[in-house]
Amino acid sequence: MKLNYRDKMILIVVFVLLIIVAGFMLFIKPAIDECSQASSDLESAKVQLSELEDQVDKDKNLAAEIQTLYTSTSQVAANFYDYQVAYKATDKVRELFNVDDVKIKNSNMTISSYGSTVLSPFAYESTATATDFDTKVDEYNNASTIDSSAADANTDENAADTNETAAQTIGYYSLDIQFKSSLSGFKNFADNLTTNNEKSMVIQNVNIENVNESEISGTMTLNMYVLKKLADPSAS
Known about the structure:
By secondary structure, this protein is of the alpha+beta class.
């Protein structure tokens, strides 16, 4: 079959078009797709970089903040005994019994296994009766001048304080003790519980016999509340 000039030109044009289409599909389109994907990846990376820069800016004082929190937490934890095995807890009680102004002799001491309990905040209200009438009148007059908005603000502040001091779960040991001592020695022991460095040993209950004699005897239950101390972050 002999092709004329017109047919040859058509075939050449079709062949060139096919080459262009094949080249576009094989080379140009993948390159465009890769460029589009690279552009999308670049924008995503810019967003991540911005987020990381913001996080770095927020964390630039993180070490100081951690140290501040550690200091405040340690101050609270200092009121509690450090977590310890049971026999060391009984040794600590014996140390408190052996103080010069106490000298309590224990004939039997048993300690519970380590457990946990919930400590809840409480507010103390004095039961003292005021007898100075003028003072009460002055207090009433002063109270009546308080702006109602200030009173509402105080109410909100107290509510916030209550929320901040929620009940906490803490570890403890319970010790049942039979003891003998002088009445003054036992009183000194009880007073010392509020002035010791650690203030988390509490007399749960006590039963004293022959209270009018020079040497008393009885039983008591002590609760020792303990916390595991945190490691100082500045030491790491």
